[in-house]
Amino acid sequence: MPANPDYKDPELLVAHLKNRDKAAIAYLYDHYSAAINGIILRIVKNESIAEEVLQDAFLKFWNKIDTYDSKKGRLFTWMMNISRNLAIDKLRSREIKNDLRTDEVENTVYNVNAENHSHQQIDDIGVGKLLDTLREEEKLVVDMIYFKGYTHTELAEEKNIPLGTVKTRLRMALMNLRNYLGNEE
Amino acid sequence: MNVEEYIASGILEAYVLQELSENEMQEVERMISKYPELSIEINKIEQTLEDVAMNTAVAPANHMRGHVLDQIKGKGEAQQKTVVPLTSDVPPNRRLGVFKYLTAASVILAIVSSYLAYNYHQEWKNTTLELNKLIVQNERIAQNSYNANQKIENLEKDLRIVNDPSFKNVPLAGTENAPGSSAKVYWKANTKELYLSVFHMNDLPEDKQYQLWAIIDGQPVDAGVFDSNLERMAQMKSIGPGAAAFAVTIEPKGGSISPSLETMQVIGNV
Q1: Domain parsing of chain B, residue ranges
Q2: ipTM for the complex?
Q3: Most C-beta atoms within 10 A of its C-beta, which of A167, A180, B103, B194?
């Protein structure tokens, strides 16, 4: 069945979602699940955990669509922030569990990652050559904040960079990515 | 800070990624409403993040589509599932038949009403939010109007005294100690009512207060203390007939039994 042409218009898509139109969420899945999944997977670093989070994320898009306000930003940004938060929460809750049960084999997934958290070894799934266009210090902030879900403050503390610098570097990095992706008017 | 500097600080990126505290978010939102060009910049940031995500997408396993969509209940689906058991075959029985229809009817009624209840619940939630906003607004307006009324009432009261011809109006002029000071008392001897209004008097240290005296038969009589920041007309102690003058001195907080005449600030004859 071809998708309802309404869905191409973000406003109408949201209206359909708010009106509990299940085909609209299917459309959302078909268009954005890969992008969302990429975001989640790069944070949690484990496919089966990422699947849980992806499922939670879409359920949340569906259940919380009434809280989305198009005046405050794009639908994708809203979905992205929900997904990032779910993924980060999941990671943290597992971290806590693993601290309690250190004998568990599973903890290698995150702990190894946390210990070797340096940008020299970006193992980012799906990122490809995108970050190659950036300078080293910009790569670091994009990788840690956008792809790995660190907060600005955590990054500032861990890498001993002033918070203001973290903010301006992320901005420079996104501007460069914007140019690279041909998105500057 | 100009708009370019504000954008360059990277705060908008942090805003889009929800990295800001509640206060900082409100500050950004205030800036956005003031400078519409910020919205354009935010939209660009959002577009970039979306493009990055699209460029770094990783398709989930094929079975995930079913998993994800199956857990989502669309419009009307919840009802259908509940209705199904009704079609299970009960042995044909006339009497039971009536009950069957009644049961079916009541179940349908229950379903329809729960669906309506759900819809109403959604609407009610939105309405409650709007209502809460209005209540807060309303309270603020009520508070303002109360304050304004309170002020008007006070002014009216003061004005009645000022305009009342039965009040004797005694200007008190600054002495050598305080040539710039000036005040007025309004005194009605037969009812012993005494009011004081200050135009200007110097600020006093914390431990001092002004004290008003009535001079009766050459003797100072305490007419009450007041602070240097007196804003509106103040009712003082009752003073009966016989006062020939009024004066104000500076005394320790709480007042003295007899005036420290060398500190006299203002004085005026009746």
Answers
A1: 3-55, 75-163, 168-269
A2: 0.79
A3: B194
